[in-house]
Specification:
With 227 residues, the protein is of the alpha+beta class. It has 2 domains: 50 residues, no CATH class; 112 residues, Immunoglobulin-like. Helix content is 18%, strand content 25%. The strands form 2 sheets. Strands 2, 4, 5, 7, 8 and 9 form a 6-stranded mixed sheet that branches. A 3-stranded antiparallel sheet has the order 1-3-6, with no helix packed on it. A hairpin with a 7-residue loop joins strand 4 and strand 5. Helix 1 packs antiparallel against helix 2.
Length: 227
């Protein structure tokens, strides 16, 4: 390639010298020399262009896709409280504490069987009634003759807060009728009170697997018809 450029330069130089000397001498045509020089130069440029490697172009690299994190679906678990024949009440021994207190779920534990005065029973103001729970001794210890049922939370509904259960003992597997006399309040509304059992040595116990569940009474007092 470089040789062709040198020959071209020589031919152009020769043509210029011949032209300066008055045209054609010794059979050499200066115009032909220039024409040949131009041809050689053009050929060299063409070959140079063809030989030149193509200009590399950058191939765009697509961005790496990123996964959009999907937040985990949290499915809440709802545990339904187990009521003793109606809506569940508190299972803690809240309210007026029994003397002594303590556990004893394995020894003392009751199971609710039936009741009178179902939840939502309607009374007029000051109506006296008796709420009764039939309970089974499902613990490992006998309920003594002086065991009591005691109010622990909610509305007392005109009752005594401590009521003697029975004068007889109730062995495991036996049943007892816990009766509490109550009186509907004077003001219209919905009232609910919670109760548990208490041993003679002061252990407060009730229903459920842990022996800490309650039984309850729920009534609705209607407006006084005479008012």
């Amino acid at each position: 390639m470089h040789k062709k450029w040198i020959v071209t330069l020589l031919l152009v130089s020769a043509a210029v010298l011949l032209g300066a000397c008055g045209g054609s001498q010794g059979g050499v045509n200066s115009e032909a020399v220039l024409t040949e020089a131009a041809r050689i130069a053009l050929e060299g440029l063409t070959q140079t262009a063809e030989a030149a490697p193509p200009t590399p172009t950058e191939t765009p690299v697509p961005p790496t896709p990123t996964e959009t994190p999907v937040p985990p679906t949290n499915t809440p678990t709802t545990e339904a409280a187990e009521g003793e024949g109606s809506a569940a009440g508190p299972t803690a021994t809240a309210g007026p504490p029994a003397s002594g207190g303590g556990g004893g779920a394995g020894c003392y534990r009751a199971n609710f069987e039936t009741e009178t005065i179902p939840d939502g029973t309607k009374f007029y103001p000051d109506k006296i009634f008796t709420k009764t729970w039939r309970l089974k001794n499902v613990g490992s210890c006998t309920w003594g003759a002086n065991f009591s049922i005691v109010w622990v939370q909610g509305d007392l509904i005109g009752a005594e807060s401590v009521v003697l259960l029975t004068e007889q003992s109730t062995p495991p597997g036996g049943y007892i009728m816990a009766e509490v006399e109550m009186q509907a309040p004077a003001k219209a509304g919905i009232y609910k009170g919670y109760w548990m059992l208490r041993s003679t040595d002061g252990v407060l116990f009730g229903t459920d697997a842990d022996g800490k569940g309650t039984v309850w009474v729920e009534i609705e007092v209607l407006p006084d018809p005479d008012e």
